[in-house]
Automatic annotation (TrEMBL):
Record-annotated Pyruvate:ferredoxin oxidoreductase core domain positions: 251-330
One Pfam family, short name: PFOR_II
Protein name as catalogued: 3-methyl-2-oxobutanoate dehydrogenase subunit VorB
Keywords: Oxidoreductase
UniProt keyword Transit peptide present: no
Keyword Oxidoreductase (UniProt): yes
CDD domains per record: TPP_PYR_PFOR_IOR-alpha_like
InterPro entries: 2-oxoacid_oxidoreductase, PFOR_II, Pyrv_Fd/Flavodoxin_OxRdtase_N, THDP-binding, Transketo_C/PFOR_II
Length: 361
């Protein structure tokens, strides 16, 4: 029987990572994700793992960088300002193709923001790449505590499958939310490539010495490096797009949302359907690769779209690009919160109000 446990989203991050055989965690405290390193500091030694509290987020991402090059499953977690500090290291990880996982439990920004304020204002820097050099990272966006646990396992699998950084984008609401989770270990039905490149010492490589200097040296030049990675990115775009649709088949209005706000939208959709309104949900699970074609198909069927996010229009750029001006795209952003104070949230009733307004036009 699968064990069930009532846990928070932040604890689901940690438990999912351990279930994925992650045994090295390097991190630095920052709200609202402090529950993750606290849990890891206690539980990692119990499974033969290592927890290191670094002196800064800059240090932690370089520890992840070095650990990943050993072939081990490694990770860090942080929140928005801390993620910003990691960008140089993340760019190096992208260059050297070091498979690892970074979790960002986002909070409202810009700047230092507030540790107790929800928000989805990290979309652009996470999805488009906050560092220099044109690298890509797979970005997974869970919308429930259960999905956090499952996507953590998927993140490590995809990181090893493609030798790439995988980012799990949570947020304040999801991190603090608690729910009953099935702690099931996911079995992936595919063999992962050999980590021939891992630095394990000459004794473990028949006397051979492998070294990493600059990523593009492995490809003979910088242009060849970019071409090789573009080929890999295209393969990911063809194989790893994930999304969820609910009530979309007969919808006259399609809501597009991700993360915790998707749950708010689903409740608003159920309120609308109770009054006979045909409203559906399209939820991207991979923010990169973005489910552009699937969204366009669903949007054209619905004829009108409402993008909802606790932000200032960042995902709307991808929604606009996907539908390519073929249907109207309305937007409901952070100004729809019930309060301008840090505790402000977008509630289902406010989304329902917007639905009624659009459908009455």
């Amino acid at each position: 029987m699968t064990e069930r446990m009532f846990i928070t989203g932040n604890e689901a991050v940690a438990r999912g990572a351990i279930a994925a055989n992650c045994r090295y965690f390097f991190g630095y405290p920052i709200t609202p994700q402090n529950d993750i390193p606290e849990f890891m500091s206690r539980e990692m030694p119990k499974v033969g793992g290592v927890f290191v509290q670094s002196e800064s987020e800059v240090s932690s991402i370089y520890m992840v960088y070095g650990g990943a090059l050993s072939g081990a499953r490694v990770m860090t977690s942080t929140s928005s300002p801390g993620y910003a500090l990691m960008q140089e290291g993340i760019s190096y990880i992208g260059e050297i193709e070091a498979p690892c996982v970074v979790v960002n439990v986002s909070r409202m920004g810009p700047g230092i923001g507030t540790g107790g304020q929800a928000g989805q204002t990290d979309y652009r820097c996470i999805v488009k790449g906050g560092g220099h050099g044109g690298y890509r990272a797979i970005v997974l966006a869970p919308a429930s505590v259960q999905e956090i646990y499952e996507l953590m396992q998927l993140a490590f699998h995809l990181a090893d499958k493609y030798r790439i950084l995988c980012i799990v984008l949570s947020d304040y609401v999801l991190g603090q939310m608690a729910a009953t989770v099935e702690l099931k270990e996911i079995k992936f039905d595919e063999e992962l490539p050999d980590k021939f490149w891992a630095l394990k010492g000459t004794d473990n490589k028949n006397g051979l010495r492998y070294m990493h200097v600059v990523g593009f040296f492995s490809y003979g030049g910088v242009v060849s490096w970019h071409e090789a990675l573009m080929t890999k990115y295209k393969k990911i775009e063809e194989s790893e797009i994930r999304y969820e649709k609910k009530y979309a088949d007969d919808a006259d209005l399609l809501l597009v949302s991700y993360g915790s706000t998707a749950g708010t939208c689903l409740k608003a959709i159920e309120m609308a359907r109770a009054e006979g309104m045909k409203v559906g949900l399209f939820r991207p699970i991979t923010l990169w690769p973005y489910p552009e074609e699937a969204l366009r198909e669903a949007a054209l069927k619905a004829k009108r779209v409402l993008c909802v996010e606790d932000s200032n229009g960042q995902m709307k750029e991808d929604v606009d690009f996907a539908v390519r001006a073929q249907v109207p795209v309305d937007y409901l952003g952070l100004w729809a919160r019930n309060s301008d104070q840090p505790q402000g949230l977008i509630f289902p009733e406010r989304v329902f109000q917007e639905i009624k307004k659009i459908l009455s036009e």
